[in-house]
Amino acid sequence: MTHAGAADRMIVIVASAGGVEAVKNLVAALPEDLPAAVVVALHLTPAAPSLLPEILERRTRLQVVPASDGLVPTAGTVIVARPDYHLVVEDGRIRLGRGRRRTTTGRRTTSSCGPPPWRTVPGSSAPC
Q1: 3-state class (DSSP) for residue 106
Q2: Cα–chain center distance at 41
């Protein structure tokens, strides 16, 4: 399903907690007129709130938002995954959930981003 204003392209950036500097540099280098949505997922401890949205906002002119259930990814927007949540793009919307989840390959995942391969099949969900 296509939603008004939804991006038809998506860039997914995934890193461990040690990758914050690399993620900051990568997001800073993205062009202001980027024709894709960007999803950023860092493997962080669920014990503390993530400051990543605020950190990235200072490094880019793109809009940076924390992920929320039902959000439609739009071009030029950086969506930051929340700690301790699974983030899945399903039917053109961000879906957040907790607990064990099955990916499109049928494998279970317990991290905030599913294991490779992240492939999107029309009508299916892409884990991240």
Answers
A1: coil
A2: 5
